[in-house]
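Now read these lines:
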Amino acid sequence: MVKICCIGAGYVGGPTMAVIALKCPSIEVAVVDISVARITAWNSDELPIYEPGLDDVVKQCRGKNLFFCTEVEKHVSEADIIFVSVNTPTKTRGLGAGKAADLTYWESAARMIADVSKSDKIVVEKSTVPVKTAEAIEKILTHNSKGINYQILSNPEFLAEGTAIQDLFHPDRVLIGGRDTPEGQKAIQTLKKVYAHWVPEDRIICTNLWSAELSKLAANAFLAQRISSVNAMSALCEATGADVTQVSNAVGKDSRIGPKFLNASVGFGGSCFQKDILNLVYICECNGLPEVASYWKQVIKVNDYQKSRFVNRMVSSMFNTVSGKKIAILGFAFKKDTGDTRETPAIDVCKGLLGDNAHLSIYDPQVTQEQIQRDLSMEKFDWDHPTHLQPMSPYGVKQVNVVSDAHEATKDAHGLCILTEWDEFKTLDFKRIYDNMQKPAFVFDGRNVVDASKLREIGFIVYSIGKPLDAWLKDMPAVA
């Protein structure tokens, strides 16, 4: 029986290995992590991450050919194929701080693999890593090989949170990069056979190592660029009276462009987009390409601008101050159908409002109070370290109250803002909400999920991103 071990039981490792176990019943899959709490959760009825369909997949395989455990070295030693899916946070100090990926956890995993291995291994990069990481890992393994042969493959993930299981069942493509040597090509074919259990062969793309690594960064950069492009247009739409939904619909009908990732919003989030673009910027700078680096850096700048523009619009609309006012925050996750808050725009929006002494009442159906308080207490980039290494403020943020439903969040609020496009927010009883809010009552729709005209009929003053401005808002322009 082929044995697979995945180091790292997070958003990538857990779901990916669960689907491999389901689709390949003849393969034994072990997911290992040093976090006892995380492994305990994977073995319980309350999985550590929320992802539609994940529960069913895990329950079908767990205890049969899918195992979650903390015996890292044992399973690494026994495995034929080792997936490495550990954190690659952005460096916060030293060379490349604020842009380069910190490969501390990757290097540690590689040295551990070298220490415990007693047979030949295929080591697969599953985390998003900077170009040439495979070469560095290869050097660590070969210089500590003790006669054991290692082949390094790059197999980046292309999952979208909220649809990860469907993405794994029906991927657009599976990308496998390896060395152009007989041993490297044999390793590629070994991993290809695993995916071929359910993925059509024409969707399994084989490349060299560097192309696979760069393709992941490039894909995320292109997607983020589309979001920043439509968000830049949303600012122009507000200034001219155009409707960004109509503009993006017209643009998306062009078959060369297509309709996906053209929804204007308060900004993009998630664990990959910003981190991967910063990584790309750093690689460009290191390779003497400052103009290319500047181009990609602008995607991040527009995203930051969109968040600060949203906060400024809120503050200026509400008589230029939110000090002491209750603001309801509906949605904290970076997108619907996930509990993930990494780089969510909600963090920057909430911090911007807290900076003006607002009192926040936050509701999200999948994000815990503990997670929200941690996110609002942490410094930038700290989120990407393992939980036990994240600094935590000893006190929660005092002006933040996390509640269990949207109506409680909005009671006596001066304004409400929608920061995640959860379906339930489209069908709220807004008449009831209006009756229980302070007047004038404001709605700031950061995801364009509500019918602004209906809300205005109720009595709300409504701001929707990229839409013609409410007469009230025209009189109170967003300050820079």
About this structure: The two ends are 62 Å apart (CA to CA).
